[in-house]
Design goal:
This protein is 40% helix and 24% strand. It has helices at 2-16, 21-28, 32-44, 74-83, 95-108, 114-119, 142-154, 222-234, 251-257, 281-291, 301-317; strands at residues 49-52, 58-61, 156-162, 170-182, 185-192, 195-200, 204-213, 240-246, 260-266, 272-278, 295-299. Helix 1 (2-16) crosses helix 5 and helix 2 packs across helix 3.
Length: 321
């Protein structure tokens, strides 16, 4: 751990020039005293780092000092730097490792290499969309993400304390298969007593790697496994079928919101009539309400009644006194 921090400290000074100890401490997420000890260790190892006192002071490297990493093409460098801006990796607890790797990539590029400037013009997954709706990625503590990741990669059994929806947390022993991140939500694919299980990482409150090997196959098609589990989830016992007439401008919105589209017909005016499935009644009511006047729920009757009652309540609330 300390060796990685020392490398990161050198790379920060290489790329940013002179930095005070307080700024280095913030970047490395350690105390100022730890930074000072690391500076002493680097000096003892022959790294040419020196200090300058005063308001503009701080630590810096002698001009011309650099680490050596070579072999990256322009496009490879851009790809790695853009990958460093993706937040989905946070779900696996690899954010700090990726940040350190990007520092090494930048330091490996020759002075004036255009890849850094190019990467600055590419933004991937910003915090909000065009409507200023904030995204909420899962937060997974390192003491959970680390053991889960090690168990998956080392092929060891895993003991997790899991909080399922509307249940108290309890311990489970599972055989990990792989990790998946979807829209910045992380999932552990595993088996338990031979049955497929999918656990959301943000609901794991504690994790322990067990010494015995996991009971799993040598090879895995994670894409296929995720598709199969997603299909089973969407076909849950509370799923409902709805017939909807929707305008062409909002047809794709409805299709993306629904669990599945079973059939569709389009009239001469471009209006679609779809037979779609939703996870449950609440999902169906929310989706049709969100489409407003652009969609008409034709069946079942309970959905039309629910939308009517909701509209009536809203109209009454905003009626003129």
């Amino acid at each position: 751990m300390r060796a990685d921090r020392l490398v990161s400290l050198v790379l920060l000074l290489r790329q940013r020039g002179r930095m005070p100890a307080s700024a280095l401490a913030r970047e490395l997420e350690v105390s100022t005293r730890t930074v000072l000890r690391d500076i002493d260790a680097l000096s003892s190892a022959g790294v040419p780092v020196y200090a300058r006192r005063g308001p503009q002071g701080g630590f810096a490297l002698l001009p011309g000092f650099r680490t050596e990493l070579t072999g990256l093409t322009h496009d490879e460098s851009v790809a790695l730097l853009v990958a460093g801006s993706r937040r989905g990796v946070q779900a696996f607890g690899l954010g700090s490792a990726l940040a350190s790797a990007v520092l090494k990539v930048v330091d490996a590029l020759p002075d004036g290499h255009p890849a850094v400037a190019v990467a600055e013009r590419l933004l991937v997954d910003p915090d909000t969309d065009l409507l200023a709706r904030r995204l909420h990625p899962d937060e997974v503590p390192d003491d959970v993400a680390g053991p889960v990741r090690r168990a998956v990669l080392d092929g060891r059994r895993l003991r997790i304390r899991y909080r399922a929806a509307d249940e108290e947390p309890r311990w489970r022993t599972v055989d990990p298969v792989g990790l998946v991140t979807v829209r910045e939500q992380g999932y552990l694919l595993a088996t338990r007593a031979g049955e497929d299980r999918t656990y959301r990482l943000s609901r794991i409150t504690a994790a322990e790697v067990l010494p015995e090997p996991a009971d799993r196959t040598e090879q895995v098609d994670l894409t296929r496994a995720w598709q199969e589990r997603s299909a089973r989830f969407r076909a849950g016992p509370d799923q409902v079928r709805v017939t909807v007439r929707v305008s062409p401008t909002h047809r794709d919105v409805l299709a993306r919101t629904a669990v599945a589209v079973h059939s569709e017909t389009v009239d001469d005016g471009g209006t679609s009539r779809l037979d779609v499935a939703f996870q449950d009644r609440r999902h169906a009511e929310w989706a049709l309400w969100d489409l407003g006047p652009h969609a008409d729920a034709l069946a079942p009757p309970w959905l039309r009644t629910a939308l009517h009652d909701r509209a009536r309540a809203l109209a009454d609330r905003y009626a003129e006194p």
